[in-house]
Amino acid sequence: MMPLTVSPQWLHDNFDDPNLVLLDASTQDNKAGKQSAFNKLFIKGSRQFDLRAFSSRKTDLPSMLTSPNVFQKECRKLGINNTSRIVVYDNLGIYTSPRVWWMFRVMGHKNIAVLDGGLPAWIQQGFDTTPLLEQTSGTGAFTASYNPRSVAEIDQVISNLSTKRALVIDARSPGRFNGTASEPRAGLRSGHIPHSVNVPFEKVLENGIYKSREALRDIFKPIITKDKPLIFSCGSGVTACIVLLACEMVYKNDKAVFDGSWTQWALTEGLSIEASIE
């Protein structure tokens, strides 16, 4: 079984593993406004994991997880099998790669790791890059096995307002969470789900690399109690996965991502629900 994250040295040492599949999950833009200095560089052998192809087209909500059938079909196009040992990275260090890690876990594939520090860390270690992505030559035989417990639907989040069974952790910036900064999506109000707590995704990282287990434990210890289920949210379900993966390193509580996140909450039931509990 793969560890949760691997170092550039680990990847370099395991490069000749015939079951290794290397996925580049970099995107052209992001709502955090982050930019990479390595937009046209890749680790040799990388296959492009296009988040758009793996996102649902049946909703206007951004980045929503697609169906198991579509996920399976797209994985097979990438030559992925159930025996594949996957390493996923992005060119910002840690940004979209944890989202891909979570997506595979939802679809029943646990043999996946995030390259800690991503492409910048790989380059900093002096390892080679290429300007070309690998073109998949064969079709894989990946079979998805959907795990609904890893995904929180809006009805569950609404129900949790009264039951308080789970703790909702929001990965957005303090300004967006507190309603003092605008959302990057035009016309979307800022604020937060009632009773949720704020752990900005930048807080669990240092120079694009996950902080030490000890430092992560110190971040989560004040808010997490043993065995309490955790629901992670952000703007659209991407950076929530950064914090979820950080938490997975130090706590084994049940964890799920509110896939619609703040965008769905603010656009739909949020206002009326918040008014009813004031």
TrEMBL record:
Keyword Transferase: yes
Domain Rhodanese: 16-131, 162-274
Gene3D superfamilies the record matches: Rhodanese-like domain (3.40.250.10)
Top-rank taxon, per record: Bacteria
KW Repeat (keyword) present: yes
InterPro entries per UniProt: Rhodanese-like_dom, Rhodanese-like_dom_sf, TST/MPST-like
UniProt xrefs under SMART domains: RHOD
UniProt xrefs under Pfam families: Rhodanese (PF00581)
Keywords from the UniProt entry: Repeat, Transferase
PANTHER family for this protein: SULFURTRANSFERASE (PTHR11364:SF27), THIOSULFATE SULFERTANSFERASE (PTHR11364)
Protein's UniProt name: Sulfurtransferase
Source organism: Fulvivirga kasyanovii
